[in-house]
Amino acid sequence: MTSWGAIAGIAVVALGMVMTPGPNMIYLVSRSISQGRRAGLISLSGVFVGFLVYLSAVLAGIATVFALVPEIYVGIKLAGAAYLLWLAWKAVRPGGRSAFTPTELDQDGPRKLFLMGLLTCLLNPKVAILYISLIPQFVDPARGHVGLQGLALGLTQIAVGVAGNSFFILTAGSVSGFFTRHPLWQRLHRYAMGTALAGFAVRIAVD
User: Fold this and answer.
1) Using N-to-C axis directions, what is the helix angle for 70-92 and 183-206, rounded to 10°?
2) Which residue, 43, 112, 118, 181, has most beta carbons within 10 Å?
3) Integer distance in angstroms from the first to the last C-alpha of the chain?
4) What's the angle, vertex CA 19, arms to CA 12 and CA 150, rounded to 5?
């Protein structure tokens, strides 16, 4: 059985990652501001399914493949780090935008909202690295069935991720209005977001 310490540990990691702006957060917030909370929540359902896809892959033993062929794992890490650095540059460059800056998006239907949320999650290097490299570190073979432990840890991450992103969706409009009235705070948030993304990218690349 998974220890409560492991569950608490993965919950803290998941919370830290959901609070660090990334592709999921940026898309969900932009969609919520441009099309409303309902559209944001529908998009979040796609992200939720993306989490389940990653969890299923880990339980199927994909982590073992990367352990046997470490070059693949290193390539994924470096590609993910490069992607996060690109997002960081977009945030801090002159004329960059905060995740909460109102953005005009096409008014998509529920099916496309769901699919875009799913695609954003599946292509999110933060989520890939969390499932492939971090969750297995909290599994203790001495405590019993490894698959059940991975399932419990993965479901913990999903619960934290969905709850955190739901909070951003529900508050996106208010935060966006605050930033519109206070440009300085928007600029500070943008630089904080870029710094966090860059720091996370560096840790991924050198770990």
Assistant:
1) 160
2) 43
3) 29
4) 40
For 46-84, what is each residue's pLDDT tens digit? Answer: 999 999 999 998 887 755 666 677 777 677 667 767 766
Residue 36 to residue 40: CA distance in whole angstroms: 7
Residue with tokens 């933060």: 126
- Predicted confidence (pLDDT) at residue 171 exceeds the cutoff of 80: yes
Rounded Cα distance between 115 and 49, Å, is 10
Give the Cα-Cα-Cα angle 9, 60, 63 (nearest 5 degrees): 55
**Short-list 60, 41, 63, CA closest to 52:** 60
Q: Say what the alpha-carbon torsion angle 16, 18, 23, 27 is, to the nearest 10 degrees.
A: -150
pTM (two decimals): 0.72
The span from the CA of 105 to the CA of 45, in Å, is: 19
| Residue 30 burial (C-beta neighbours within 10 Å; 0-12, 13-18, 19+) | buried
Do 11 and 156 form a contact (C-beta atoms < 8 A)?
Answer: yes
Q: What is the pLDDT of residue 159?
A: 96
Distance (Å, rounded) from C-alpha 152 to C-alpha 75?
A: 28
User: In this structure, what token pair is assigned to residue 36?
Assistant: 């409303």
